[in-house]
Specification:
The complex is a heterodimer. By secondary structure, chain A is mainly α. Chain A contains 17 helices and no strands. The relative contact order of chain A is 0.08. Classes of the chains: A mainly alpha, B mainly alpha. Chains A and B meet through helix 7 and helix 8 of A and helix 1, helix 3 and helix 6 of B.
């Protein structure tokens, strides 16, 4: 089965599960205490709005906390209702997903929620027979249900990400767990806190506790938004330079896409992939200083003009290097025209001396340059471009990287 | 918003302290380092973002003769005019970005030696740089910013570029930025204006074109901003300015 088919089947089943669970939730909802249901749904709505991205892979919302508090106080029907409806409502209203995708995303969580419900029921029954104090056995059951949820949900997230982005499972798990564990712990603790506050002090205080939880989450949402905006501004800058020559519109964006795929195929950690993405996006930024006439010139460049163009990789590196957070990417950009055999510029580095990211960007850049139209020649097909790149493996390009390109070629 | 949200937190912590114990508060304190981390990363990224936009703006301005600082001044003037007109905060924010980035498309037309006469107001060039600028700004999530860039050379009577639309079909942000752009270009002497103009020459021009190529309400707001000394440009404005025949006293604009 092809990757696309697998993805479609997966998405379809998740959508179906979401739909069925919604039906289940709706049928059981009238039996639930109304103020409680209102509070849980409200918290789930706000929680869904608070989307955070603790790491390069995966996004999380505060909704699971609301859903589980709903389960522990109101039962499975409330849980399923709060699991599906707020997710779909918020995502569609805010334009984050289409209706069908929203159901599929809800379904991804819902499967985890069913696991959590199962764990909760089993654990509660199991502990009721033991001698533990009631509050302790309740807390253990709650924790167990949340943990079961996280396992199910993260596993599904990993499968979807693997199918969509072709990242290795090991890399996904490493990334997700390392960056998200604090988030998971805090959300779990927050939910347990809420339910305890509710049972000790009543619904109103639980409502206040819910606001407290939202407030704690808000800085992370701001951060996720700001990171998105930052990335957009980098893309904007890259596009500004790309548009100096109408034939290169979105060139940097495409080079970044290719470079990221190659990097993931080699199995680099996501942090490194991010740096490579930025480096690829910004690799031509130095062209800001090169005259538009030279950039757009359809015929061969004379010596002066070629020198001016060759300076662009060191100029690009200087521009980015001034932003301290981007130092690593700046190094990649500086060397993205170095040749494997040492005949490149600006420093004539050989083989392994060239940063890996730079070698990747070089190949990605070549691929896009070969496949794009120019005023003096049409773009080659991807197959032809790959053949040309392969001819130059070992001399101009790193052979390992060319091989990696060959292996993901069909995905581009 | 953070202020409002803190009240429930204080209440809950208070209840926990009184009814449970001091230990409950300690549990809350454990979360604070993570908050601090999130805020620190946020500030860092916001700073980076501002640096990048600034870098783009500076690169743009440098590609024009006498263009240094132009985009920032146009942005400040546009915001001052927009505040005089009491536009919404969201519109003012779009205007600020649109003004800052209004000439970013000029990156493609660097040397004035590119065009035969060096006059960038040739219709094809105007069309080129606003379309390119709008294309670049479209990367941002806000549509109104790229609209402002695309339309900032349209004129109220329809005589502008690239599409010759007029009146209210020009977005308000574009009308504001368009006027601010003219004022600063005249003040500094950027092409196509031959040499730097004096304050009175600029004011005369605005008076003459008010209602013709310039939206009267925007022109009036500009005059008020000048009179109240909230209009930052490269010019020293005269002490008193007349708006519609009556002198206006200097002071802060109403909000």
């Amino acid at each position: 089965m092809t990757t696309q088919a697998r993805l479609s089947v997966l998405r379809l089943s998740m959508t179906a599960v979401a739909g069925a669970s919604l039906g289940f939730g709706l049928s059981g909802l009238p039996a639930v205490d109304f103020p409680l249901a209102m509070l849980i749904v409200a918290l789930a709505l706000v929680g869904e709005w608070l989307e955070v991205r603790p790491g390069p892979v995966g996004s999380f919302t505060l909704r699971p906390a609301a859903v589980f508090v709903g389960l522990w106080t109101g039962g499975p029907a409330l849980m399923m209702f709060a699991a599906v409806v707020p997710c779909v409502l918020v995502r569609v209203t805010l334009g984050r997903s289409t209706l069908r995708d929203a159901f599929s995303i809800a379904g991804q969580d819902v499967i985890g929620f069913w696991l959590g419900y199962g764990a909760f029921t089993w654990m509660s029954a199991h502990l009721a027979a033991s001698n533990l104090a009631i509050w302790l056995s309740e807390t253990v059951a709650q924790l167990a249900s949340f943990v079961a949820f996280w396992c199910g949900r993260l596993y599904l997230q990993a499968v979807v990400t693997h199918l969509e982005e072709s990242i290795r499972y090991r890399v996904i798990w490493q990334s997700m767990l390392r960056s998200a564990w604090t988030h998971l712990a805090i959300q779990t603790a927050g939910a347990v806190f809420l339910v305890n506050v509710g049972s000790s002090f009543g619904l109103i205080v639980m409502g206040l506790g819910a606001v407290m939880l939202v407030e704690a989450y808000y800085p992370w949402k701001l951060l996720a938004e700001q990171t998105g905006i930052l990335f957009t501004s980098l893309q904007m800058m890259a596009q500004a330079v790309d548009l100096k020559d109408p034939y290169t519109s979105r060139h940097s964006y495409r080079v970044a896409e290719y470079a990221v795929r190659i990097a993931r195929t080699i199995g680099l950690p996501e942090l490194e992939v991010d740096r490579i993405r930025i480096g690829a996006l910004m690799h031509d930024i130095g062209k800001i200083g090169v005259s538009g006439r030279v950039i757009r010139k359809p015929s061969r460049l004379d010596d002066d003009e070629r020198l001016a163009m060759m300076r662009h990789s060191s100029m690009s590196a200087d521009v980015i290097g001034s932003l301290s957070v981007l130092q690593e990417s700046a190094k990649m950009v500086r060397h993205h025209h170095e040749r494997w055999d040492g005949g490149g510029y600006p420093d004539g580095l050989v083989g392994d001396e060239i940063p890996l990211g730079a070698r990747i960007i070089f190949v990605a850049d070549a691929l896009d340059a070969l496949t794009s139209d120019r005023p003096y020649r049409r773009g080659r097909t991807k197959a032809e471009a790959l053949a040309i790149i392969r001819e130059n493996a070992g001399t101009q390009f790193d052979s390992n990287i060319v091989e990696a390109l060959g292996s993901i070629f069909h995905l581009l | 918003m953070p202020n409002l949200l803190s009240v429930p937190t204080a209440v809950v912590l208070g209840i926990l302290y009184v009814r449970v114990s001091f230990v409950a508060l300690l549990a809350y304190l454990a979360i604070l380092p993570f908050q601090w981390l999130a805020l620190r990363l946020y500030v860092e990224r916001r700073r980076l973002y501002t640096q990048i936009v600034d870098g783009l703006v500076v690169a743009t301005d440098m590609s024009r003769p006498r263009g240094r600082g132009h985009s920032h001044r146009v942005a400040e003037l546009s915001v001052a005019i927009a505040r005089e007109m009491r536009l919404s905060e969201s519109t003012i924010e779009a205007i600020q970005f649109g003004a800052l980035l209004h000439d970013v498309g000029m990156i493609g037309i660097d040397d004035t030696a590119d065009t035969a006469s060096g006059d960038w107001r040739e219709p094809e060039d105007v069309g080129f740089h606003v379309r390119v600028g709008a294309a670049i700004a479209r990367e941002m999530p806000r549509k109104d910013i790229s609209e402002i860039i695309l339309r900032h050379h349209e004129r109220f009577d329809g005589s502008g570029h690239p599409d010759g639309i007029g009146g209210d079909s020009i977005p308000i942000g574009a009308r504001v930025v368009g006027l601010a752009e003219i004022v600063d270009s005249m003040a500094v002497g950027m092409p196509p204006h031959g040499s730097a103009s004096s304050p009175s020459e600029v004011l005369d021009y605005i008076e003459r074109e008010r209602g013709k190529t310039l939206d009267p309400s925007v022109a009036d707001a500009f005059m008020r901003a000048v009179a109240r000394k909230t209009a930052p440009t490269a010019l020293e404005w005269p002490i008193s300015v007349e708006v519609g025949g009556r002198p206006v006293a200097p002071g802060a604009p109403g909000k």
